[in-house]
Amino acid sequence: MKNYELISNPKLDEETISTQPIFEGNIITLQVDTVRMPDGNTATREVIKHPGAVAVLALNQNKMLVVEQYRQPMHRTEVEIPAGKLDKGEDPLAAAHRELQEETGLHSGDMRHLKSFYTSPGFADEIIHMYVTENAQPGDMSLDEDEFLEVSELTLEEAYQYIADGRIADAKTIMAVYAWHLYTLTGQWH
């Protein structure tokens, strides 16, 4: 995995002058930063800090494993690939194995990293590390006490139909479907 924090352009970088904490929750914190812009003027930036997350594209006999669960911010259920937040100091690969097992009961020995990406870099530092596995073995689910979901499998065609119908609407799952489609065309994970 690349270290995205090291990428810089001195002509565009902003210097943080001060940080004012606003809210600290179980998953996110909100802060307002005062920054010095490249032209010397100052501005404020509202920033959500997030510990990061993992997502797993799990394929079994040419079908993608998905979970459907209610998402309060959208007030609806979403069909998504298994995913979850990183615990403090947790290795992303270990978290991917943990989340796959917790949400689906599956265990995988051959998980590989596909890509890491920021979800909303204009106001949040959340990064998702996406993994793929093609040979997961069944086991027992161990959902969190506040987690209710249904597990199912979709063909590539069904996944595209779910996207068209709006049942799949989150970026990580759409990205996983596109990566899977590219894999079917090239035989390579890009």
CATH topology of the largest domain: Nucleoside Triphosphate Pyrophosphohydrolase
Quickly give the CATH architecture of the largest domain. Alpha-Beta Complex
| Coarse structural class | alpha+beta
- Quickly count the helices: 3
Classify the oligomer.
single chain
Overall pLDDT level: 93
The run of helices and strands is EEEEEEEHEEEHH
Write down the overall geometry: globular
Question: How many domains would you count in the coordinates?
Answer: 2
Number of separate strands: 10
Unreliable runs: none
Question: CA-to-CA gap between the ends?
Answer: 13 Å
Radius of gyration: 19 Å
Largest sheet: 7 strands, mixed
Top CATH class of the largest domain: Alpha Beta
Q: What is the CATH homologous superfamily assignment of the largest domain? A: Nucleoside Triphosphate Pyrophosphohydrolase
Question: How helical, in percent, are the residues?
Answer: 10-25%
Q: Work out the strand percent.
A: 35-45%
Cofactor: Mg(2+)
Protein name: NUDIX domain-containing protein
GO biological process, one term: ribose phosphate metabolic process
InterPro entries: NUDIX_hydrolase-like_dom_sf, NUDIX_hydrolase_CS, NUDIX_hydrolase_dom
Account of the protein in words:
This is NUDIX domain-containing protein. It holds the Pfam family NUDIX. Residues 49-183 form the Nudix hydrolase domain. GO terms for molecular function: hydrolase activity. It is a single chain. This protein has 190 residues and is of the alpha+beta class. The protein folds into 2 domains: 4-49, no CATH class; 53-186, Nucleoside Triphosphate Pyrophosphohydrolase (Alpha-Beta Complex). The chain is 21% helix and 37% strand. It has helices spanning 92-104, 156-165, 171-186, and strands spanning 15-24, 29-36, 42-49, 53-60, 63-71, 76-80, 83-85, 112-118, 127-133, 149-154. Strands 4, 5, 6, 7, 8, 9 and 10 form a 7-stranded mixed sheet that branches. A 3-stranded antiparallel sheet has the order 1-2-3, with no helix packed on it. Strand 5 (63-71) and strand 6 (76-80) form a beta hairpin. Helix 2 runs antiparallel to helix 3 (171-186).
